[in-house]
């Protein structure tokens, strides 16, 4: 069976580095925050092209804390694309604000800047572009929109570690950016983990306080309502060990995406991801009008695939009031997108077999 994703194979590939990182923590004296978290934060800030990185307990927490630290709260609206993982919208609820879902651009599958502009109201406090599948949202148009209305931008970079737009790292465009280190991510740990990056020193300080009970520095006095939302020390050590390989993994993903593109170029009815230089292909998601049939056919050939994301967030009961307009592009993509294996440890030996099965499906009269 070819799995759609298999973090255990990545762990096996880097088992030596991971074991050494765990041993170092076991032999040290910091189990909460401490030197391993500080070292990872410094390394990740430099990798992400930002002055600061603050390690937190998950990607969802990273988004929620970033919004809170920017002053977003009750009564505010946050504009975000309806095509994303539920965590993007849960983060908005967590900080007391309301999600306002807008449609995505059919090519980039990321937030449509014109739809975002139409959704701005007097309550709008922030825009949350999601760099879906590791492809960049249109940041210049979104920054112009945010500047026009005095809005904050929090980039959801959960799927975009190391991705660039015009040579600049995603995550360095907004006021803050949130990363997830969920095990399947391009940089993933062995459990939950996340980080917020920013170039604003005061925002970074506020984030360090919010993730640690509202404490300031080493003082154990709560200055404001805070959380226990720190990046786990063991995960930080593992992430430091894996970070040096992240760009290699992204290069391998680019090469795999290029192989898929060539092999699938003339498949009838099949839609391919956009060709975005700097994308890191967290997913290689194709579209097909009979997506469920294609998924079944791949499964019969022993090939795993996955649906990201159906339904759109505006159709989840928890946020069903979050859209005021129909979102036809999101609905169409939600019904037709299928993510193929792209994780290097899975796909390097499997691309040709997956592509052949897809080609068979697309040329069989049905
Ligand atoms: C786009 C997106 N946003 C947010 C999240 C939430 O991250 P986490 O699972 O670490 O809370 C994820 C991933 O899981 C994601 O893919």
TrEMBL record:
<feature type="active site" description="Proton acceptor">
    <location>
        <position position="185"/>
    </location>
</feature>
<dbReference type="InterPro" id="IPR000653">
    <property type="entry name" value="DegT/StrS_aminotransferase"/>
</dbReference>
<dbReference type="InterPro" id="IPR015422">
    <property type="entry name" value="PyrdxlP-dep_Trfase_small"/>
</dbReference>
<feature type="modified residue" description="N6-(pyridoxal phosphate)lysine">
    <location>
        <position position="185"/>
    </location>
</feature>
<keyword id="KW-0032">Aminotransferase</keyword>
<dbReference type="Pfam" id="PF01041">
    <property type="entry name" value="DegT_DnrJ_EryC1"/>
</dbReference>
<keyword id="KW-0663">Pyridoxal phosphate</keyword>
<dbReference type="InterPro" id="IPR015421">
    <property type="entry name" value="PyrdxlP-dep_Trfase_major"/>
</dbReference>
<dbReference type="GO" id="GO:0000271">
    <property type="term" value="P:polysaccharide biosynthetic process"/>
</dbReference>
<dbReference type="GO" id="GO:0008483">
    <property type="term" value="F:transaminase activity"/>
</dbReference>
<dbReference type="GO" id="GO:0030170">
    <property type="term" value="F:pyridoxal phosphate binding"/>
</dbReference>
<protein>
    <submittedName>
        <fullName>dTDP-3-amino-3,4,6-trideoxy-alpha-D-glucose transaminase</fullName>
        <ecNumber>2.6.1.106</ecNumber>
    </submittedName>
</protein>
<dbReference type="InterPro" id="IPR015424">
    <property type="entry name" value="PyrdxlP-dep_Trfase"/>
</dbReference>
<keyword id="KW-0808">Transferase</keyword>
<comment type="similarity">
    <text>Belongs to the DegT/DnrJ/EryC1 family.</text>
</comment>
